[in-house]
């Protein structure tokens, strides 16, 4: 089974995938050239910046395919977390975050889909975030990019299934906070050169909370990787289970997703008697009660 793992320098514990995937398997790993790893016949390293132009991403994908002729599993784990208040951010901040976290992974996915369709099988693992389900101050742009990745993945899965490719599987992984070697929480918030003092207190509280949480998360990244690998292979704890389109990882992710779903269902229930009666030719019996 040929795995392609796309990882960004700011999520270094992606190397937890190495012992899990490379054992008696072939693994291709996209990783910055500044990092070095052990030599292995089952490990091939290629460098890819997911913020690169689409043409560059396509060329790198083809380079991966040239090694074996196929990629069975694509793991889109590349990304970084921009910590900035929404009003402090510029359009360039939004664009840079989405380029790395969404546009790049989408381009890499599209570059590898044709060979998966030609074989009528393949697996794509999208690494999302629980922050796209639970509003966290200073992570609005990051969460938005992960929410975009989720909706794109949901729709892509539907398109593939509806077009006769049900064996090209997509799983959207929504991790909790995990204790990685260089966690994204550890570096300072981005603040404008002339910040609005109205947000000074909030900025200070956010930075203090992030620093306190950094490297104190309860999640074990090795255990999380083991669950993903089991799910992809249909082995271990995933044996006998149906393929999951969604895979929340950790108690916090489960809790945040449950909370968001309850909020949405409550909103539907509270407004249903009003919003159910908006069709052009629909009876106004209920609408007249408004």
Automatic annotation (TrEMBL):
One of its GO terms (molecular function) is oxidoreductase activity. Keywords: NADP, Oxidoreductase. InterPro entries: NAD(P)-bd_dom_sf (IPR036291), Sc_DH/Rdtase_CS (IPR020904), SDR_fam (IPR002347), SDR_oxidoreductase (IPR051911). The keyword Coiled coil does not apply. Pfam families: adh_short. The keyword NADP applies. This is Short-chain dehydrogenase reductase sdr.
């Amino acid at each position: 089974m040929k795995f392609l793992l796309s990882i960004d320098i700011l999520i270094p514990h992606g190397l937890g995938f190495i012992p899990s995937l490379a054992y008696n398997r072939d693994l291709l790993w996209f990783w910055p050239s500044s990092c070095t790893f052990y030599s292995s016949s089952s490990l091939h390293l290629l460098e890819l910046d997911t913020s690169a132009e689409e043409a560059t991403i396509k060329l790198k994908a083809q380079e991966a395919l040239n090694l074996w002729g196929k990629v069975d599993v694509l793991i889109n784990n590349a990304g970084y977390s921009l910590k900035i208040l929404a009003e402090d951010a510029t359009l360039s901040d939004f664009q840079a975050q989405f380029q790395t976290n969404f546009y790049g992974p989408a381009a890499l996915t599209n570059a590898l889909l044709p060979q998966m369709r030609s074989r009528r099988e393949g697996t794509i693992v999208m690494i999302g975030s629980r922050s796209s389900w639970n509003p966290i101050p200073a992570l609005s742009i990051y969460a938005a990019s992960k929410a975009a990745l989720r909706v794109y993945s949901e729709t892509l899965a539907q398109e593939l299934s509806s077009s006769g490719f049900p064996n090209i599987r997509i799983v959207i992984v929504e991790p909790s906070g995990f204790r990685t070697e260089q966690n994204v929480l550890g570096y300072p918030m981005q603040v404008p050169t002339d910040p609005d003092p109205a947000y000074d207190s909030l900025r200070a509280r956010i930075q203090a909370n992030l620093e306190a949480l950094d490297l104190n998360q309860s999640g074990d990244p090795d255990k999380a990787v083991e669950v993903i690998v089991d799910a992809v292979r249909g082995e271990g704890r995933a044996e006998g289970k149906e393929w999951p389109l969604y895979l929340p990882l950790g108690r916090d992710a489960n809790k945040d997703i449950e909370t968001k779903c309850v909020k949405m269902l409550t909103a539907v229930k509270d407004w249903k008697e009003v919003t159910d009666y908006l069709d052009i030719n629909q009876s106004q019996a209920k609408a007249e009660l408004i």
